[in-house]
Amino acid sequence: MFRSKHNEAQAIFEILVRENEAMLMTYLRAAVRNQNAVEDLFQETMLVAWRRLNDYDRSCPFGPWIRGIAAKLIMAHFRKAKSDIMITGCETLEYLSRQIEHIHERPGDTWEQKIDALEHCIEALPDNHREMIELRYFKHQPPSRISEITKISLEAVRKRLQRARAQLLDCLRRKKVVMEAGT
Amino acid sequence: MTTESNESQNRLVDRLSNQWLDTEPGDAEFYVSAVNASESLNHEQLHRAADVQLIHAVLTSLAENSEDARQHRVNRLMQSIRAAREEISREKLTSPRKPRRYVGPAIRWGTAAMIIIEITIVLTSLPPNKAMATIDQMISAIEDAGDRTYSIIVRDQKTGRREQEPGRFAAQRRNRPERAVFDGAKLYLRGRNNYVLYRYTPSGQTVVNGSNGQTNWLIRPRREVLISSNPQAFRIPMPVDLADLLTLDFGETLQRIRERYKIKYLGTVPVEQDQHASWAYLHATLQKHRSRGPRVIRIWAHPDTGLLRRIEFADVRLQGYAEPKKLIFDLVDQKQLPNNWFAHSAHHPADAEVGSLSEY
Fold it and tell me: What distance in Å separates residue A63's CA from the closest CA in chain B?
């Protein structure tokens, strides 16, 4: 039995989607604040990619191509919901795309393996900063709830989260996971 | 630009980015002000903001430890693609049909072969799983291991500080006997079935559980020694979160972790105070959120022999403590213990009263 050409293209596309799902979600999350909008933009980006698959040059990597589509959709989203996006402009999105590509080129078969170093960086945080990261990201608590749980002021929670993220950025730079600023 | 002014510039950008990331619904003005302020940022500052937001995104990806969410996302997309295709097919049925271009068997076979090759490349490029190999080596190492002594430590999850004497005053208030606790306990192991666990009450009384593989026994202060041939007798009351995960047979515990947790090998690292040696470090996260058990387990093992050096269970609710704790088993000694160490008689005076509970 032969699969139709369409089914075959769909099967190949599904493989590409699965391979690039975590990478694209990271790119979108870095640019767009609203989680629902991120999910919608993911669907929209991939649907546009599917429709334009014939335009994709298979000798080039899929990642930058798909992020190029996503960048245009992010800019369109910015026009509708300005406060969802803080870093605007093609140049900044292009910079973000280069950072993502830098991670994507790291050894490892999955996105998780490529960002493994982050686990070490979290481990190396001071206890009170690691606690903030664990509550905010791994327990999905908003800052106001973290403030209640830890019995420290909301302002202090925000400050600690800010410092923890800055430390993680420094750590990932030292480990060459993230490129140096201005690269 | 000086380093000092760079740092002050970074702080300003970080404040804006973090304000944008951490504002909650209902606080719209807060993030609108961050967005407005960001409009005056220059390229360098925007790159810094992008980096901070990248950290947020990478953390969110790391924390999205649910295959279900990813599966759902991809399935939703593929359904949309199929639905769009069916829509086109329906439209074609109602419109005049164009003559179909002939696609020869060679092209069909070629495309099919291409898919098979692509899938094969994806599957064969996966590296041997170092984490699983390390766990398997650890389980085998327990079979051949000599005597081992582990110290049990309970630490506050938030502060990381060691906590002692839980529930002493509560027990006094309720006029109940004090409970022996895990913090400060010592666990002696030989092979997989021989164990002795020394625990202490807050006032210093000793409770000893043990087994030589055939007889389980229990020694409590001022009471007769109990022995039983029932393998279930005098089992250690494990914390609720660990009830179906942790046993004193670490081989069994590691096997359960292997089955239920997603394990990553994160290289070789020192263990806390012991900075002279490096140990293989495994980070295990609970695979299914509906399963019971701590969300994270950290494991250190000898990189060559697989000997379990330390295991940490995070966020465990222990009896007698209000807040979640870390429960840690830390290898402190490997000296050979006396031959009779796992028999009850090695741990009480010769004239102690011993009661046999065959039906216990």
Answer: 16
Q: What is the pLDDT of residues A26-75, one digit of tens each?
A: 999 999 888 888 999 999 999 999 999 888 887 788 899 999 999 999 98
Q: What angle do CA A22, B73, A140 make, to 5 degrees?
A: 70
- List, in order of start, the domains of chain A with CATH numbers: 1-107 (1.10.1740.10), 116-183 (1.10.10.10)
Do A99 and B54 count as a contact with CB atoms less than 8 A apart? yes
Sorted by where each begins, the domain ranges of chain B are 3-63, 132-356
Distance (Å, whole) CA A86 – CA A94: 15
Distance of alpha carbon B277 from alpha carbon B172, whole angstroms: 44
d(CA B15, CA B25): 18
- The pLDDT of residue B186: 94
Which residues are bridge partners to B269 per DSSP?
A: B279
Using an 8 Å Cβ cutoff, are B291 and B260 in contact?
A: yes
| Three-state secondary-structure class, residue B299 | strand
CA–CA dist B38, B7 (Å, integer) = 17
What is the pTM for the complete model shown? 0.51
**Domain spanning B132-356: CATH 3.90.420.10:** no
Radius of gyration of chain A (CA): 19
- Cα B306 → chain centroid: 18
The helix (H) or strand (E) run that includes residue A167 is helix A154-174
Complex ipTM > 0.90: yes
Q: What is the DSSP letter of A55?
A: G
pLDDT digits (tens, 9 = 90+) for B267-295: 777 777 666 778 888 988 887 655 678 88
CA B50/CA B20 separation, integer angstroms: 12
Token pair, residue B342, equals 């796992």
> Which residues in chain A touch residue B62, judged by CB atoms under 8 angstroms apart?
112, 115, 118-119, 137
Helix (H) or strand (E) holding B45: helix B43-63
Specify which residues B310 forms β-bridges with: B300, B330
Helix, strand, coil percentages for chain B (3-state, nearest 5): 40, 25, 35
- Chain B residues with beta carbon closer than 8 angstroms to that of A136: 22
Residue A8 tokens read as 């075959």
